[in-house]
Amino acid sequence: MQKYDFTGASNGADCLVRQAREKSMHGDHTAAVEYLMEAVDIEPKHPEAFALMGDCCDYLGQHEQAIANYDRALELDPYHADAWFNKGMSLRSIGRNIEAVQCIEKSIELYCGR
C-alpha cells in the first residue's frame, strides 16, 4: 500500500476511511484494514474507522478482532448503532448468543430512537 502525506489529520483519516470502504465494497478486506490502520494512526479517535475495521475483520473470519474493533468504536461513540449491531453479529458467530442479543437490542433502540 502506498503511504500518503495528507494535510490535516481529520481530512487524511477521512480520506483513508473512504478508500478503505471502497476496497471493502470490492471484497478486498485485507487492503481495507491496511488503510484503516493508517487512518487510526493519523486519527486515533475515529469511531467510523474502528467500526469499518470490525466489519473487515468479521468478513475475514477474525471475529475476536472484529469485536475488539467494535468495542473501540463504541468507546468513542456509544451511539453508533451499526457498530452495536455488527458486534452482535460477530458475537453470534462465535456462539456468544446472550451478549449478541443484548448488542442487537441496543442497536434497535438506537435505530428506533428509544
Structure in words:
The chain is mostly helical. It contains six helices and no strands. The protein has helices spanning 9-25, 29-42, 47-59, 63-76, 81-93, 97-112. Helix 1 (9-25) packs antiparallel against helix 2. The model is unreliable at 1-8 (pLDDT under 50).
What are its keywords?
single chain, 114 residues, mainly alpha, 6 helices, disordered N terminus
What's the SSE pattern?
HHHHHH
Q: What is the end-to-end distance?
A: 42 Å
Uncertain stretches: 1-8
Rg (CA only): 14 Å
* Outline: globular
Strand content: under 5%
Average pLDDT over all residues: 92
Number of strands: 0
Total number of helices? 6
Percent of residues in helical segments? over 70%
Largest sheet: none
Structural class: mainly alpha
